[in-house]
């Protein structure tokens, strides 16, 4: 062909179509890419379906799936139709001829450019907004299911007299619908305005009318819909005041109406609703009037009213009515908040009793026997002895125990016994040869329970095991010992096929086994293998010869994972614990139903209120969904997970909870009746820790019932920091079998202490009856200490332990060499009006890398003991002698009080002087007057010397009626030694006591 450009001719490069082979290759690659993406998406769906079917909870999967699909489809379609219809309508209402202006001429090229693709562009825009809206709506599946299945609470809010279910189930759904309506209207308005502008219905710079009549009518209707939705928002905001959080000096996360809400915001919202309705009608009237004048005036009036009525007026009320007399104005609303919060968190039945904090019994020896009847004091700390279990009972490196063991109770020799229990779980990090076969086929499970008495240790400070060795044997009898599901089992395993598993090893070598349970998903099907190979990113699953007939893949193996998966509407407690029940190891998991819509109940963040010194160092102790803000919680479900089969069972525990009833309607058949819980399982159920921690946090303020005290803040408590370490985190609650003052027998309890806000002395002691299946289960008792006198709190008691000179010297020696001292849980037990504190002390070192119980600290009524065993310490505290620990033998100090009066008057006079000098020294020590203290010690030493000389002289004269007071039986003359009936505190302690 000739060159039409007029330039020089030359060789032409022909760009031809790709060859058929290339086109075929490209097409094939494209198809394969699409099929690959499709199969990847299918694999995720298919493996989820297979897993839910394997645990017999396929209805949860299908209900959730169809709900999401339905919401996605309906709201995605509605959004697409709304936006698409308004684009189509704006295009249809375009003027027949565009004005010949510079503005319109510049738009002509855009109109001409999109003309051939108008339908595709319309489809693309509507599809995009539909997909986004549908995905957002699918995330509201919980809100939809709660709305459509909601049941009545049987309680009405105090302001609007509506059932609580309206706020918990209905209002969230209405707010979602309102938000969706706003989004659809705004997107439609933007799309319509752009279309009108593009086709000349709206003009920005052109002379003449800015909008055609058709565009004016169309946009005014959309604006009218927006204002009408705003009117609905104002109306719903009235009810939202009952669940609104605000800053209030009385408490954090205050929820509900206050005086300004009820008397300013509530009427303001009603007035704004009426104004918005009128304004919306004015916009709709534009269809006939074809003018923006009245709607614009109405809209301006609405905005001005929102500023004046909705903002300025409430501020004036707060400033000039509430602040001058806040307590009187706010008291009625505080009372509503108090009542609602106590009800929402299950603390309305809390029994608060005055407790003196000091024992009226003068002869403390009478209380020694009462200690054993009052509490089974646990000296084995489950949060410290895990390394000891590991060292003594691990047996093989591929086994491990959790960082924190658990406390349960078992019947041994006919009596209940607090027991520290842990499972010997699989630890893949301990497998010598790491490869795919070993990690997923050979080493697949742990083996056996290890348990020890909680109240004692053996003569060497080691746990007194009641179940031990490999295979485990002891008081728990026969049970399935293989542990395929546990807290440390986070990797998948493939079992039951041609590859044998290592069961355990003994002196005769390795024992092998093959899984016979029905858990997991069968991999015999090639489709299943391909799906898991894609989902797990492990191609060997597809072609490995280690997989054959009978092979099953186990995953989602931690108890919390499994319960959360089968019941995604539950919040899971942070501490799952094992128990041997009917010949099986069962993981017991506590689960909660929650809502954020209980009117007037103050909110709490689960992650904050359940945090303590244990969760700070152990992620497994953290509550699931810890960022959730809730203002209603119930321990409605007890769940079990079989450690061998992985079977999950959900039991209805709170039969009155309306939130659980709602979810049971949404997922019928998933939760079993409470009556189906066996007696053997019931014996191991307990009050959950995370619920207790939430309740104790609320009780720091909500233990009071009158608004005046609540507003004053004079009775605010706090959960003390853990005194046994320097983490600065809250002390964890402790399980303990004990008897509160109004109880006739010991009950398995969960306990904690409170201190006044900003101070360290004790303000209250709290315990909840944790013995499931008994009439008292869940009963919260609070012993309130007097505010007029001070009783030492945990931090002060720990400080006393650390500052006692004899104890400090003993601990210094225990730390000798490379040893470390670890303080166990500081337990508090109410006893005869006073408080008994017990703390085990562990030593790790001397070539041993695990802690052993070496000493027990005990204090009661100012008397302190530091002995080798609990019994010895209790005997010393409540005995006629020995109120302080005996210092090390090389110390030379003395610890016992002066002997009783003798018949020698000279000796008796000297001992009286010694007692006076000792008392004077104690007084001087409390005041920090070291000069006076030194003088008193000199007088004490001189008096003791006179007594000893007089006694010696009497002995020479044949006076056999007297005996020489040895140094071991007299007050110490040295300020570094213990002296008298109570140990002389050190300068450090004196300063701490202030």
Automatic annotation (TrEMBL):
Positions of transmembrane segments: 24-46, 66-90, 120-141, 173-199, 211-236, 264-284, 296-316
Region Disordered, annotated ranges: 499-518, 880-906, 944-994
Membrane topology note: Multi-pass membrane protein
A Gene Ontology cellular-component term: plasma membrane
Localization in the cell: Cell membrane
InterPro entries noted in UniProt: UPF0182 (IPR005372)
UniProt entry keywords in alphabetical sequence: Cell membrane, Membrane, Transmembrane, Transmembrane helix
Domain of life: Bacteria
Compositionally biased residues, Low complexity: 960-994
Family label: Belongs to the UPF0182 family.
Protein name: UPF0182 protein HCX60_25905
């Amino acid at each position: 062909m000739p060159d039409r450009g007029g330039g020089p001719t030359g060789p032409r490069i022909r760009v031809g179509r790709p060859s058929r082979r290339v086109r075929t290759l490209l097409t094939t690659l494209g198809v394969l890419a699409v099929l690959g993406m499709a199969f990847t998406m299918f694999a995720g769906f298919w493996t989820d379906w297979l897993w839910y079917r394997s645990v017999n909870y396929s209805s949860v999967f299908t209900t959730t799936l169809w709900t999401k699909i339905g919401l996605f489809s309906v709201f995605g379609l509605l959004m697409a139709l709304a936006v698409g219809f308004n684009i189509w309508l704006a295009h249809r209402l375009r003027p027949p001829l565009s004005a010949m202006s510079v503005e319109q001429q510049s738009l002509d090229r855009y109109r001409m450019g999109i003309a051939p693709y108008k339908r595709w562009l319309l489809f693309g825009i509507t599809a995009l907004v539909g997909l986004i809206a549908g995905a957002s709506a699918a995330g509201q599946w919980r809100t939809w299911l709660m709305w459509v299945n909601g049941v009545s609470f049987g309680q009405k809010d105090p302001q609007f007299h509506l059932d609580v279910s309206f706020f918990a189930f209905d209002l969230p759904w209405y707010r979602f619908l309102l938000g969706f309506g706003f989004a659809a209207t705004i997107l439609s308005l933007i799309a319509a305005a752009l279309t009108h502008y593009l086709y000349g219905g709206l003009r920005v710079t052109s002379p003449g009318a800015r909008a055609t009549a058709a565009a004016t009518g169309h946009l005014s209707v959309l604006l009218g819909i927006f204002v009408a939705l705003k009117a609905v928002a104002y109306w719903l905001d009235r009810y939202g005041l009952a669940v609104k959080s605000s800053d209030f000096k009385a408490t954090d996360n205050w929820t509900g109406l206050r005086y300004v809400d009820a008397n300013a915001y509530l009427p303001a919202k009603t007035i704004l609703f009426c104004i918005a309705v009128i304004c919306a009608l004015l916009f709709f009237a534009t269809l006939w009037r074809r003018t923006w004048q009245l709607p614009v005036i109405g809209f301006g009036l609405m905005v001005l009213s929102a500023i004046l009525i909705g903002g300025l007026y409430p501020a004036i009320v707060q400033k000039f009515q509430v602040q001058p007399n806040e307590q009187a104005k706010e008291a009625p609303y505080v009372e509503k908040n108090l009542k609602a919060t106590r009800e929402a968190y299950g603390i309305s039945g809390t029994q608060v009793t005055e407790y003196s904090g000091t024992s009226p019994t003068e002869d403390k020896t009478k209380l020694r026997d009462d200690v054993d009847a009052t509490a089974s004091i646990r000296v084995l700390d489950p949060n410290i002895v895990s390394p000891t279990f590991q060292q003594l009972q691990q047996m093989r490196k591929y086994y491990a125990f959790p960082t924190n063991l658990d406390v349960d109770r078992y019947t041994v020799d006919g009596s209940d016994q607090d027991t520290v229990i842990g499972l010997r779980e699989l630890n893949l990090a301990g497998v010598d040869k790491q490869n795919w076969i070993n990690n997923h086929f050979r080493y697949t499970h742990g083996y056996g329970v290890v348990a020890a008495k909680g109240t004692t240790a053996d003569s060497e400070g080691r746990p007194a095991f009641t179940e031990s060795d490999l295979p485990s044997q002891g008081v728990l009898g026969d049970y399935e010992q293989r542990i395929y599901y546990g807290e440390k089992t986070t990797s998948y395993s493939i079992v039951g096929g041609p590859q044998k598993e290592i069961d355990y090893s003994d002196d005769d070598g390795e024992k092998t086994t093959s899984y016979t349970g029905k858990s997991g998903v069968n991999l015999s099907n090639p489709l299943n293998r391909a799906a898991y190979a894609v989902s797990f990113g492990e191609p060997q699953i597809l072609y490995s010869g280690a997989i054959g007939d009978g092979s099953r893949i186990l995953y989602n193996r931690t108890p919390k994972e499994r319960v959360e998966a089968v019941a995604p509407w539950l919040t899971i407690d942070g501490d799952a614990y094992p128990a041997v029940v009917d010949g099986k190891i069962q993981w017991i998991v506590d689960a909660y139903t929650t809502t954020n819509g209980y009117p007037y109940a103050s909110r709490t963040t689960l992650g904050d209120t359940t945090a303590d010194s244990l969760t700070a160092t152990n992620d497994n102790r953290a509550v699931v969904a810890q960022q959730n803000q809730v203002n209603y919680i119930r321990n409605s479900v007890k769940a079990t997970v079989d450690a061998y089969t992985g079977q999950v069972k959900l039991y209805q525990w709170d039969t009155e909870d309306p939130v659980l009833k709602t979810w049971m309607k949404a997922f019928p058949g998933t939760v079993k009746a409470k009556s189906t819980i066996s007696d053997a399982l019931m014996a191991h159920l307990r009050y959950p820790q995370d619920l207790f921690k939430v309740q104790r946090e609320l009780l720091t303020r909500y233990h009071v019932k009158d608004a005046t005290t609540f507003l004053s803040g004079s009775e605010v408590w706090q959960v003390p920091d853990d005194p046994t370490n320097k983490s600065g985190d809250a002390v964890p609650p402790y399980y303990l079998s004990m008897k509160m003052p109004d109880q006739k027998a010991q009950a398995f309890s969960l306990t904690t202490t409170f201190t006044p806000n900003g101070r360290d002395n004790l303000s209250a002691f709290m315990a909840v009856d944790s013995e499931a299946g008994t009439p008292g289960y869940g009963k919260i008792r609070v012993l309130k200490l007097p505010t007029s006198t001070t009783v030492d709190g945990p931090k002060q008691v720990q400080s006393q332990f650390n500052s006692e000179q004899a104890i400090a010297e003993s601990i210094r020696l225990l730390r000798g060499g490379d040893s470390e001292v670890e303080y166990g849980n500081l337990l508090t037990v109410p006893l005869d009006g006073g408080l008994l504190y017990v703390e085990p002390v562990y030593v790790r070192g001397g070539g041993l890398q695990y802690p052993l119980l070496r000493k027990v600290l005990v204090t009661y009524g100012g008397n302190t003991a530091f002995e080798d065993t609990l019994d010895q310490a209790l005997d010393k505290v409540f005995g006629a002698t020995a109120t302080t620990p005996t210092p090390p033998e090389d110390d030379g100090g003395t610890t016992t009080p002066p002997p009783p009066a003798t018949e020698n008057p000279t000796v008796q006079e000297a001992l009286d002087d010694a007692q006076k000098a000792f008392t004077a020294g104690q007084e001087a020590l409390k005041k920090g007057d070291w000069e006076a203290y030194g003088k008193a010690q000199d007088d004490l030493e001189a008096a003791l010397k006179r007594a000893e000389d007089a006694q010696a002289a009497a002995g020479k004269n044949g006076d056999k009626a007297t005996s020489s007071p040895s140094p071991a039986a007299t007050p110490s003359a040295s300020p570094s030694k213990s002296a008298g009936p109570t140990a002389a505190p050190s300068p450090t302690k004196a300063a701490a006591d202030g």
